Records
---
Amino acid sequence: MEITRKAPLGRPRGFDADEALERAMMVFWEQGYEGASLTDLTHAMGITRKSMYAAFGNKEELFRKALERYTEGPAAYAARALEEPSAREVATAFLAGSVSATTRPGCPAGCLGVQGSLAAGDSGRAAQDALITWRDDGRARLRHRFQQAVDEGDLPPGANPELLARYVMTVSNGIAVQAAGGATRSELQQVADAALRNWPPV
Amino acid sequence: MEITRKAPLGRPRGFDADEALERAMMVFWEQGYEGASLTDLTHAMGITRKSMYAAFGNKEELFRKALERYTEGPAAYAARALEEPSAREVATAFLAGSVSATTRPGCPAGCLGVQGSLAAGDSGRAAQDALITWRDDGRARLRHRFQQAVDEGDLPPGANPELLARYVMTVSNGIAVQAAGGATRSELQQVADAALRNWPPV
DNA sequence: TTAATTCTGCACCGATCGGTATCTAAGTTT
DNA sequence: AAACTTAGATACCGATCGGTGCAGAATTAA
């Protein structure tokens, strides 16, 4: 025992799995789950189909892993926003993060969590469900944070954390759609500012 | 000359083209452009591929016609909202219409103009562009209406019709995404109310 | 060296994609 | 009834879909 495995058995893979996943994420982000073919994906990843299947399982699992990477990368603003000291700052940071993430130069316009699979045929149902869960999860975290703000007296006792979370999430999703249609960063930041001009919107 | 064509030559079609288009619209609405296969579409329409091609051209034109029908049907709330007497009522009616159209029982959840083709591969680019144009058009109509409100003194002189239109459209798009994720009508109406609690959001 | 293991590259699988050719049946005009 | 035009059904087209089988190359352990 205690044999420290210095290197895995067999021929080592000839590509960087992290970078390949990053490339796959970009393709899904731009073309959506169903719109991204294995040919598109593997060409962007710089590997063959066989290598992709060996490293990631199948298209569906590749999408799930790309979504995880998206959460920890371009969408990390969401987790950071939750750590802001007040509900107002949480909402402000969340929307500002949405704006910058959906209009980042060098990345596809919009949000992978929205346009990855908003409507789908049979083959895309699993991805569609995964994204619904993903958005629900983000909304739940906002709700908890706003509930905490109510408990702390940061928000008035009558404030509705459920509604506030859905409100912020709705504006964020709308920003993503607008960005996918070509709206610029400054245009969307103005919208975000307008959405938070009276906060909380009781 | 002056021969009044009483009936078109040849065998008359054995199906109602309007109803077939309605069915196709529902399939595109639910599955998106790329997610809806010709098999899905023609089965729902109750006709054969050949009849579909003869009556509508091809899949892309079928989608465009389905989008027109959507505009005049489920999305007719938009045109009606523009006729409201004040900017506030326009925005209120527009968002209320969004809520009810995206959560209508018996129809797919969400908005065809958003989820029909938000992200797409090569084969869906044309549909994607058509929807971007469609949403831009709706936003332009809102902008003109709000400009009119400024001209009439209904909105203060400093109001920004461009921003107001984008704000309303953003919330509407967000409502569509939320609806696609299963949000209920009353939940979304609360969001719409919150978004208009201070209007205009200057 | 040898055996075991795993990655790569290529060809290939059946299924489905959007779109069409063909044939027959059905209707209209003359 | 003849001539003409179109609807409907079926089978089919080449291309692409997601996914694999297989042979060979590369590496580790013995």
---
Amino acid sequence: MAAPPEAVVHAWTRLERAHRAALAAVEDRLKAAGLPPLAWYDVLLELERAGEQGLRPFELQKAMLFAQYNLSRLIDRMSAKGYVARTASAEDGRGQLLTITRAGRALRRRIWPVYGAAIEAAVGAHLSPAEARTLGDLLEKLHPPRS
Amino acid sequence: MAAPPEAVVHAWTRLERAHRAALAAVEDRLKAAGLPPLAWYDVLLELERAGEQGLRPFELQKAMLFAQYNLSRLIDRMSAKGYVARTASAEDGRGQLLTITRAGRALRRRIWPVYGAAIEAAVGAHLSPAEARTLGDLLEKLHPPRS
DNA sequence: ACCATCTTGATGCAAGTGCATTTATCTATA
DNA sequence: TATAGATAAATGCACTTGCATCAAGATGGT
């Protein structure tokens, strides 16, 4: 049933490998710098972009493609450290609003130099600018923003 | 320090998303079919390719980019189920040789149709043949086979 | 208003992962 | 041939993830 063409299998296996290698390299650098895991950065970035009004957990969940229970506990940890604030949602009695704190913004700024350098080393260093652009565009087709 | 160009950051974030989405979709299908996780397939495939003489755990580790302790325990589980055989290495008193069993080969054959269809759905369906080829080649540059 | 159904978010428990360390064996150099 | 150092693999313990389920609040039809 639907045995995929060889080029597709090749793309998939390379996607796995490239991602695994790059992610491990990035996480290693963060750890070496005494910084929290990547997921923390993603949360901080999304919340910072959301600004004053914050984000509902389920929105963050969709933005990050994170499992509900994982996000719930990630937010536990991050708010315990004071990087994220949970407040009850005004419109929805079930829900909450997550906002980034001052400490959260500071943490994100502290992570970025290390993270950015790691991205450059793991991705940028291997590709020409045109290749990087093409790669990004092709990957975007695999999971289009608004689908 | 070394803030990467925008195209590089874009490629990285898309790599993360595309991989996360595709992987989740593939794992979901395996689970729905009552099959073990993807990593099992990778082990079975590598061992089947290695043939009679098998593979040393550390070789498998490099092939799969899997952490040593994780592989050690993954092999525990797989050999407990009879899909992989562990035997002491003849040349190296510390080491072992892993080989796939008949049941292991059967499992791999049983997984492939589901896995192949999932790859097609997650990757093939979104790309032309030429795009798939280009994507695979670009990803290969991120983690060249023999580096 | 009522009830069935859906959505949001949390949580108990089992399974997997990461970290540090350990044991055993191999290798190289003096 | 000793012996210091490297490599192969396992393991105890803490943390994270996955799974299933739950409780509380929203929603829509009657």
